[in-house]
Amino acid sequence: MDAELHDRLDELQRDPYPLYARARSAEGLTYVPELDSWLVARDADVREVLRRPEDFSSANALRPDVMPAPAALAVLGGGFGGRPVVVTADGALHQELRAPIVRGLSPARVGAVLPYAAERAAALVDDFVKKGQGGRVELMSAYAGRLPGEVIGRLVGFDPDDVPALVHGGRRAEQLLFRPMAEAEQIAAAEDVVATAHLLDAFVRARHADPREDLGTELIVSVVGPDAAELTLDHRHQVVAHLQNLLIAGHLTTTALIGTTVLHLLRDRRQWELLCAEPERIPAAIEEAARHDTALQGFRRVTTRPVTLAGTELPAGTPVFLAFAGANRDASRHPRPDEFDIARPAGSRHLSFGLGAHTCPGSQLAREQLRLTLELLTSRLPGLRLAEGQRITMRPTLIHRSPERLELLW
């Protein structure tokens, strides 16, 4: 990818909504060179693709936007993982890989971890209120970037002391796959990813030797089997791949959702004050935030045979980008789609957590963490506001869209 294309990709990722609007109004599908994919941005078309997994495979769901340099790929070769994961699998393999995650993120398991999540959320708010100089906090680093990692770490069974390094490794993996970086930066990111993989492998070996009632054990048993005493090298690679995927999905998306939700609520003072006065609106505010500025903007798919979508003929092997965020701004399903309105009448469901076989199994956990966050902030800091003069820049990725920094005052 040349420098000009890098710049265009960066611009697109920081604000993709104008592109989605043009694609929705165009006849047929729109080819986007920066993504090397046909863009699917209308609600009906996205739903059709999601309902036809036999025609639109997930095999390329995590295909890099920017292919790492050979030197970085060589570093990655020294790590663990590299096996099929749930977001890139289809059919029976997808169901097999998904089953232990669904069990591990069941309503009962999520309910059981909520007291811990509430305790940690309150402690993080206590900490930044206590340390906040003149009533000021950078929310992404002090809160949004910490709570989801701690909660998913608790569910999986990680040592709390290891969670910061694991969260850092997930962020570095995202940067390596979806951001243009100089070769030296790519190598450094790859080294961080490999270090994280080895940390996960140590966890897998320890948990296999000492099983617990946690998601980590659930994943190991799903790979090794309930009666297998030996943990082979291939088993270890498969479980580490599971955990790498789960970590990124389990904390980066929720971190992004917390950041964008608070941002849009505080940009419109009336809506923030309405939420403070009527906290029963919090569930509706969560759904509207997820719809309006979708954390996971979309995923790739590839056609398994010649198909026609929206009048566009796509040969077998054609990459498409499913823009969940584009569908969520489609006026045919969501009136006044570009407006952020927590009083929007309940009705049409958004696609922020997917649809069908690949519906996000962690959606309840994400919603609950956002609910806890909004309950805390509206009750304890009703005077919360955006710091004046800051330039809010969105992270340049279509995988986890959120503010890079969010300076708040109270």
TrEMBL record:
Lineage: superkingdom: Bacteria
One Pfam family in the UniProt entry: p450
InterPro entries: Cyt_P450, Cyt_P450_CS, Cyt_P450_sf
Entry keywords, A to Z: Heme, Iron, Metal-binding, Monooxygenase, Oxidoreductase
SUPFAM superfamilies given in the database record: Cytochrome P450
Family: Belongs to the cytochrome P450 family.
Name of the protein described by the UniProt record: Cytochrome P450
Lineage of the organism: Bacteria, Bacillati, Actinomycetota, Actinomycetes, Kitasatosporales
